[in-house]
Amino acid sequence: MLTIQSNVSLKKYNTFGIDASARYLVEVDSDEDIQTLLQLPDVQTLPKLILGGGSNLLLTQDFNGLVVKINIKGISTAKEDRDSVWVRVGAGENWHEFVLYCVERGLAGLENLSLIPGTVGAAPMQNIGAYGVEIKDTFDRLEAVEIATGQKRIFTNEECRFGYRDSIFKNEAKGEYIICNVQFKLQKTPTFHVAYGDIQKTLDQMGVKELSIKAISDAVIKIRRSKLPDPAEIGNAGSFFKNPEIPADRYNELKAVDPEIPGYILSDEVVKVPAGWLIEQCGWKGKRFGAIGVHARQALVLVNYGGGKGNDIRQLAEKIQTSVEEQFGIHLHTEVNFV
To answer: Membrane-spanning residues where (predicted)?
Structure first.
């Protein structure tokens, strides 16, 4: 039985802890719930906001429509062969808990993505990634309901058009589908990814002698906890900006001026520069402005200390973008979605 609530505070539904409200809110537990909901005449005409864990969202105003909270659960093996296991997961499952589920069963491919906040359904929308691994590396397919028709559709890896923190669901198909479940192809024999960031250094500090996907997961968790604030303690949405990818010629020009500028060579033509480093060089790290600010340990994270407004955080982000562009000639794109 679907229960549509009126005038609901969204404070507990977003990790920034912004106290905006929704005109209506409904929680759905199955594909059938979604299809039933979309058939309701009053619902068809309302603006809709699809919500998973609310961890990649900045509410800048009240939402004058229907918020659909996805609670679809379930993890099962779809098929298996000698080398791989295809795991089907409900869109409402907690991402980190799903990663731990896989690690505990020796299913490799997602261990570098440990402790990323949010739900499984939101992961392919953003093509989440960390420490040299992205969703697209293990993603097999997803099932979604088209909002306009209520019909189910399957999207393959290729059809999702994954890019850096990007997919078809942030572009051509934005706001057109509700993801119900996601299927991953995971490996029985792991390929370890330890070269990115501080993973190898952390493994050494932990005294790890024999590499395993659990050891990598533990190392990633340790690193993330040391750098990133817990949303349960300080409101935030993790990395607020994408790491910019710039032409190699431009990177070399910047390095000639400042030899300390870090960069990850993606190809002969493209270098990725850490956005947090750029922001820190502009003097923003640890700055506080009343109820909001830039985190003291990680300049890539904007925070709400309590009672902050979404619009204030948005304006802070715009000031940071302007200062980085003025100093380095690089435009930072946001990873967080504004509503």
So the answer is: none
